[in-house]
Amino acid sequence: MSHKKLAMFDPALLKPAIVDSFRKLNPAVQWRNPVMFVVYVGSILTTALWAQALAGQGEAPAGFILAIALWLWFTVLFANFAEALAEGRSKAQAASLRGLKKETLAKKIKGANATDTWVTVPATDLRKGDVFIVHSSETIPADGEVIVGVASVDESAITGESAPVIREAGGDFSAVTGGTRVLSDWLVVRVTVNPGETFVDRMIAMVENAKRQKTPNEIALTILLVALTIVFLGVTVTLLPYSMFGVSVAKAGTPISITVLIALLVCLIPTTIAGLLSAIGVAGMSRMMQANVIATSGRAVEAAGDVDVLLLDKTGTITLGNRQATNFLHAAGVKEAALADAAQLSSLADETPEGRSIVVLAKDKFNLRGRDVRELGAHFVHFTAQTRMSGVDLDGREIRKGAAEAVRAYVAERGGHFPPEVEMIVEQVAKRGSTPLVVAESAGGGARVLGVVELKDVVKGGIKERFAELRRMGIKTVMITGDNRLTAASIAAEAGVDDFLAEATPEAKLKLIREYQAEGRLVAMTGDGTNDAPALAQADVAVAMNTGTQAAKEAGNMVDLDSNPTKLIEVVETGKQMLMTRGSLTTFSIANDVAKYFAIIPAAFVTTYPQLAALNVMGLASPASAILSAVIFNALIIMFLIPLALKGVKYQPRGAAALLRRNLAVYGLGGLIAPFIGIKLIDMLIAVAGLA
Amino acid sequence: MTTHAWLLLGAYLVILLLVAKPLGIYIANVMEGRGFAMRLGGPIESVLYRLGGVKKDEEMGWLKYAFAILLFNLLGFLAVYALQRLQLWLPLNPQAMANVSPDSSFNTAISFVTNTNWQGYGGESTMSYLTQMLGLAVQNFLSAATGIVVVIALIRGFARHTAKTIGNAWVDLTRITLYVLLPISLVYAVFLVGQGVIQNFDAYKNVTTVEATRYDAPKLDAAGQPAKDDKGNAVTESVSLRTQSLPMGPVASQEAIKTLGTNGGGFFNANSAHPFENPTPLANFIQMLSIFLIPAALTLTFGRMVGDMRQGWAVLAAMTLLFVVMAVAAMSFEHQGNPLLASLGTDTSVGNMEGKETRFGIADSGLFATITTLASCGAVNSMHDSFMPLGGFVTLWNMMLGEVVFGGVGTGLYGMLVFAVMAVFIAGLMIGRTPEYLGKKIEAYEMKMVSIAILVTPLLVLAGTAIAVMVPAGVAGIANPGAHGFSEILYAFTSAANNNGSAFAGLSANTPFYNTLLGIAMWFGRFGVIVPVLALAGALAAKKRITASAGTMPTHGPLFVVLLIGTVVLVGALNYVPALALGPVVEHLMLGLAH
């Protein structure tokens, strides 16, 4: 999808964002953000006060009121800009997706046979249940399920993965996505969704709805922000009578002006977080899209941040899909090299991953080079369900490899015996969680067992560190596998997962999820098969693989276009980042108020009580410049924090306490100190420029 | 800070923390209907329930619980109001005290029902013994019980999960009164009598003094307000007296619950500064101890009931740390004395003794003032109005923290838990999880209730003060000109809305204007918080409980304690900094300049 990464302030995005910032001055738009609406009203009021001052009735010098009014308007515009920029980025993503929706034609057929005649209709006319045929180099017109045929499909438009994938009727690879292209052969597809509900539609909707549908935490935070705004409204409104009373008893100075009160109010209310709040949400969804994950809602992404149990399939997620040879364990009286040689010979023509891994191991260990089977004049014996062995016949010598049972029968048939020490090796290998492959040869009427090749489930590189990371985040990992308990336990130990479910059936998975949920945990899982659907539906966060079946995709609340099961970890991180960014900026915003009080309170009342100048700890030049500096700082900080809002607070997989300590230090303490420095600097600039 | 002050504070903390845990666990047992007390009091309880038609096993949802609490307190208000209005015709009135005016009765009734015990009247010159005992003392018990049962309901909200109910209000009120407040008060009152606190129904005694007393009394105008000359200074007249009337009454019985229930309404106008209420330093120490006793114990009741004592200790630690800082500040500021007096050549080495009793001195007065203002008690053994500007600032600031540092019985803990929810909410977001406290997710509804509970009080304080400084009736009550006059009004509304009840005595508040406005502030400062707190309790009880993991923010460690303290201080500061700047802060700065 969006492979072209957009720079933070891409010029292509800036211009429309600036235009949008002004368009968003519409009161109906402002009303949706109550905190910024207060600033908006404040801007209008100060502008009116400026007009009044121009008319000679001013409560303060017209220049000062104008400066305050302008910077209040900037505050509103900066917040608009942050939102517009975030939206612009996601709109760019949506636009590239919309390209996929270009008018395609569908070859609709009546029956379900490739030989049926088709009628060409626009793709938008297809309805759920309709059947169409699509030939090579044509675009698939709609999401659906293959009912007949096998074809290679280029899904790079959706997934960004250039290698074509195979789609075929039946099984777990039967789902096709509208907008992708058939490269070879043909497919007969039954449409599974109505127009407007397709994948691409959902992606576009997700991007465009991000700002409208507030997530639960966003709603709760907004309530807190509104509450703070009400408090500060109370604080500033009551300050006018206090000031008037002060003036009357001290018989000095003038009551605080409305302009200064509005400036104080805007500085105190949490404009920083309120101005960036919707940008954070939109940017979070954008990041999900960049990770090639489609979420049905922001709620789902947020829930991912809360997950504390992760169910992962063993195969493909924790281990590489295939077992690999890791060891040659020879029988008594047989050299290890001889065993390796025999095993290699028997595997030369074996195209299974296991077979190839034996060849590789033999080369690594004994420098046995690959030989051409045909050159040797060897006859390769394929694996069959009956013999349960494969091997090679060469110059009257037969080499066979297979499961212990099959080889025992083979040796016994030829008058040999299965030595007890090999029996023990087989047992030990099985205990280790590996698969024993017994190698035997028969030549000159006798047969003997050469030894055992240990085939091991190889745990993916780096996965153990990933799980350790998750553990630090407080997330428990559970491996799901169809293997027996022994094998499962050994792989679980090697991969470093916290728990495992062996001999897993769909029912067992569902039961496990329900048990965790009853304990009050949030469970995430990935799945692709139809039999995963019930468990996906039960899990709190369910990521379906794009290669998976339609049923799985519908049951999940996210779809991973890359079909990468470890993507779940990134999803969790994105969810957490969204919350962390909101929390950190809220803390920052509130902590800022302390410095603003120190700037504005002495400035506002120093005419009544000159002693209050002692509170001017920053040594700001004049009351007017102090108030203006605070307002300017308040506006500029929104601009400064836009990159943080769009990128998100850096997430580090640490325990909750360590994470909180760090963020409190950076955003709490930083929020206390930063405005003291910022306001002082702005004040110095104003003083130098002689503006106030 | 003198050595005496440090020793006093140290001894106070040690004894308080020693008794808090056993009492806390005892309260938890009683409220859960367990323990030896139940076996003793069971029959009495049964009789009471039968009389009241209460089905003790029938629990209530939060709405019904809140309704019961409101009804109970409304009836209490009516009873106290009626007693005051009719006391002349009722028995136990040897001094033939007149019926109290409607506005004063209204104010006092609300004041005692809401556990504020703001006193616009002087006890010995206004109230009959019957009104004191049947009206005020009874409400001292019942308002304390109300506060405690509300926090118990909130704790149940945390402790229970997927539950529809939070307890039975009638049973809770009965139990806390019967098993906790009454027995402790009984022992405590006997102790006070031993120290010299009086307990009788005698008429006031007239005695001839050894020495004639001469003093300048403020002259009152026709309206009963202090008269002022053209320059706005108070007019005084010289008075000489050789006789003195010693007021009598059933003091000890009311004194015990006054501090134990963090009520603070004195039998006499001078409150705990009066020798008949608080005769000895030992009585003073026990009074201070009894103020924090139940609030401290309840934190551990909380720990016990949610099944994790560490949670209770963490809250107690946050309260204790804030308390120590405030106590040290108040005592230090008062020890320093008044620089203006020093410049006149007076010996101020002893500190600022204005408005303090010599039998208590600086340390015992400063500590008492800190405790009574932090605990929403409002009993005083010295005049806060006479404190140094910064000493007065501390008492004012203590109340502005929202009465959550120990705070009133029950109210302090539920206030602190509300702050804890808010702290956890922001912190939870900062670590990237939906915030949760004690396994309960904090979502929009909870934040709404928390916001209301935190919003109500500051808005009442700020708006009330604003109205008072704007209207002539409000400004008329001010005794001292300048910024101190503003501090007096600010103190009055802070005290009323936070249900503290102590006063900067300079303000003449027994006027229809202040009686009405402060009465409204007290009522909404109390029930405007209780209702959202009970709603919060109901919502929490209904939630599922989430198991803690390494990703859950721990709420029992030092980090949480710091976070909680930070939240309380920051919210207090943000609400009140401008008002404080125009009151005590500017007073202090003026003092420095004059010096």
User: In this structure, how is the largest beta sheet of chain B organized?
Assistant: 2 strands, antiparallel
**Level of helix content of chain B?**
55-70%
The oligomeric state is heterodimer
Let me know the number of strands of chain B.
Answer: 4
Radius of gyration of chain A: 35 Å
- N- to C-terminal distance of chain A: 52 Å
Strand content of chain B: under 5%
Name the biggest interface.
Answer: A-B, 78 and 67 residues
Strand content of chain A: 15-25%
User: Which structural class should the secondary elements of chain A be placed in?
Assistant: alpha+beta
Mean pLDDT of chain B: 92
Total E-strand runs of chain A: 22
Shape of chain A: elongated
Could you please describe the fold and organization of this structure?
- The complex is a heterodimer of chains A (692) and B (595).
- By secondary structure, chain A is of the alpha+beta class.
- Chain A is built from 23 helices and 22 strands.
- In chain A, the strands form four sheets. Chain A has a seven-stranded mixed beta sheet with strand order 10-22-21-20-11-18-19, with helices on both faces. A six-stranded antiparallel beta sheet of chain A has the order 2-1-3-9-4-7, with no helix packed on it. In chain A, strands 12-17-16-15-14-13 form a six-stranded antiparallel beta sheet, with helices on both faces.
- In chain A, helix 9 packs antiparallel against helix 21 (567-605) and helix 22 (623-647) crosses helix 23.
- The longest helix of chain A has 39 residues, at 567-605.
- The two termini of chain A are 52 Å apart.
- The mean pLDDT of chain A is 84.
- With 595 residues, chain B is mainly alpha-helical.
- In chain B, strands 1-2 form a two-stranded antiparallel sheet. A two-stranded antiparallel sheet of chain B has the order 3-4.
- Chain B is built from 19 helices and four strands.
- Chain B is globular.
- The model of chain B has no long low-confidence stretch (mean pLDDT 92).
- Among the domains of chain B are: 205-246, no CATH class; 409-594, no CATH class.
- The two termini of chain B are 22 Å apart.
- In chain B, strand 3 and strand 4 (440-441) form a beta hairpin.
- Classes of the chains: A alpha+beta (692), B mainly alpha (595).
- At the A-B interface, helix 7, helix 21 and helix 23 of A face helix 14, helix 15, helix 17 and helix 19 of B.
